[in-house]
Amino acid sequence: MLAIVLGMDETGINRIVADKRPVTAEMALIFQDLFDVSADKFLELQKSFDLAKARYAQIPDPDRNLRVHLFGGLPVAEMMKRGWIKANDIRDVNTIQTELTRFFGVKQVNEIEILPHAAKKTSVVGDITPTQLAWLYRVKHISSDLITPKFSLTSAKNTISNLKSLLLSPQEIRKVPRILTEGGIRFVIVESLADAKIDGVCLWLDNEIPVIAMSIRHDRIDNFWFVLRHELEHVSKRDGQSAIMLDTEIEENLDTITSQEEKTANQAAAEFCVPSKFLDRYIERKSPIFTELDMLGFARSLNIHPGLVVGQLHHRTGRYELFRKYLVKVRHLISSSAIVDGWGDIAPIAA
Questions:
Q1: 135 lies in a domain?
Q2: Biggest distance spanned by C-alpha atoms of the chain
């Protein structure tokens, strides 16, 4: 009878009843007229039935959620490209998971720190993203293989004093790794991962060996010296022993930072580059007209490169268009004498 009313053959009706033919929108409208039930209801019933059937038929995959966190959080493709994990195909899930356990130093993949249930081993001041955590682990891998003399607060003070004599010429930056090493400070340069916005970090190995790592995200002489001195202040204050000092977007946050440790480090870095008492007088005398000749004379009087004056002048006045040609690039200089990972180079580490 139903087949006659619907204008269908019995085979068609039987296929719907046997779930061999779904209820379509057109069929739902016909049923609506026939049974005085909304067509939407028929479609909802069909959708609920299909979903229930799929759940029943689906083979459980307990590792799916784990893979979502790993591949959705970590920059796996970039880690492969940088040689941090050894895998030829990002679709080779088993190999990648094995490599990630090696990289993060865990026995099982579900112990990796980015997972919600994993016990956190790395204590960092502030929040940290999975990408930043991966960069931090790479720093720890590389720095663990280095050898330096015993560190002391006296050696930190001497290191800062010795670095001060290098501020005149960009070429002198090549000496930085040696001076840091002699002061008992391990120093590495690791290119930042995409969107990590990392400038530098101060951490301690075994709570007694200081490590400074920089990304040289902004390749300028003023930024290099500012970030380095910033991290050195953390070392000299033993910041980072209880919680790693990971510094991101230092330039962007100069005026909004609230942490006292970061304020102290920023102040020390600014004083190192251009002592504030001299900079204050220079700005007071010359503002609002700053000439190149005056700026160069001021830099010579302090025995520092003009780029350091320009960097501080930009921050203090907001006149970022001034004398930008003196903000020379330095990464190629420091790379010739430092342990570098990135920009096509892979730092060797012990297996």
A1: yes
A2: 105
Clarify whether residues 29 and 73 are in a common domain: no
Q: How far, in Å, CA of 282 to CA of 274, rounded?
A: 11
Helix, strand, coil shares of the chain, percent, nearest 5, are: 55, 10, 40
Helices and strands (H and E) in the chain: how many: 16, 5
How far apart are alpha carbons 339 and 344 in whole angstroms?
Answer: 13
In the numeric block, the tokens 């790395």 are attached to: 122
Instruction: Work out the pLDDT band at 14, boundaries 50, 70, 90.
Output: low
Q: How far apart are CA 202 and CA 241, in angstroms?
A: 9
Average pLDDT over residues 221-234: 97
Residue 199: both structure tokens together: 């400038």
Range of the domain at 20: 2-57
What span, in angstroms and rounded, lies between the C-alpha atoms of 341 and 336? 12
CA angle 344, 205, 95 (to 5 degrees): 50
Q: What is the Cα–Cα distance from 74 to 71, expressed in whole angstroms?
A: 6
Could you identify the residue written with the tokens 């010579």? 300
Residues 136 and 9 in one domain: no
Per-residue model confidence as pLDDT tens digits over 290-326: 999 999 999 999 999 999 999 999 999 999 999 999 9
Same domain as 227, residue 96: no
